[in-house]
Fold this protein.
Amino acid sequence: MRASTLDDYQRRIAKVVRHIEDNLDAPLSIDDLAGVAAFSPYHFHRVFRGMVGETVKSYVKRVRLERAAFALNYTGHPVTRVALEAGYESHEAFTRAFRARFGCAPRDFAQSESGQRSRSFAPEQPAAKVEIVTREATRIAYVRSVGPVEAIAAAFGELFAFAAARQLPIDGGALGISYDDPVVTDPARMRFDAALPVADDVEGEGNVLVRTVPGGAFAVTRYRGPYTEMHNAYVELVGQWFPRSGREPANAGCLEFYLNDPREHAPEDLLTDIWVPIAT
């Protein structure tokens, strides 16, 4: 496939993936998604499967079920509500699908080994300070990483090469957008956007895409330690602070702002501000 054609296909499929992630509560028909990508419905299904590695139906089902597992772990919502939010019309159908994906019934998931691991962190760790901050919408250039944490460095490398070629500022501006819980989502399917804020006149190229991250209210906490252990800070923020605060996290990616350079600091001294969007 010619480079220009491949770039075009990647941008169009990335637009569909973004549309799915932003509209998980809505009906997502093949015809509508094909329209988002400007493909015919017949060809769209094959293009999506070839480039994403899953059928459209499988991708939507998996992401909805993983979001449901997150909700069962952290929100305390009843199974019936979680089932409806995942697109299932009956408790029974949701239970069958959930059991096929996670190996247990929804009501048992939070007590399972996976559920216990998702809420575990060092008991001697002091409660994190959390602030509520309002942030404006931000236009970003980003590279999507799908895979384990170790794959993220390559995404940032590609993004920084793109920025350097265009003399875009890099120092202090890098951020990540994290979408998945590593206990719920298979490491090979973990979604992460390596990102940089950019001006309105910057256009994407190749794997580097451009979009606007919505603004709004965020719960913000500072994490100190290696990136590979950052999940513990998410567990404390989402699993403990949110329930006590009376608020709920929004169904959107979480922002990570990296405050020092991992090339110059030991892993235990790395500082990251974690921004979790608050549902309105």
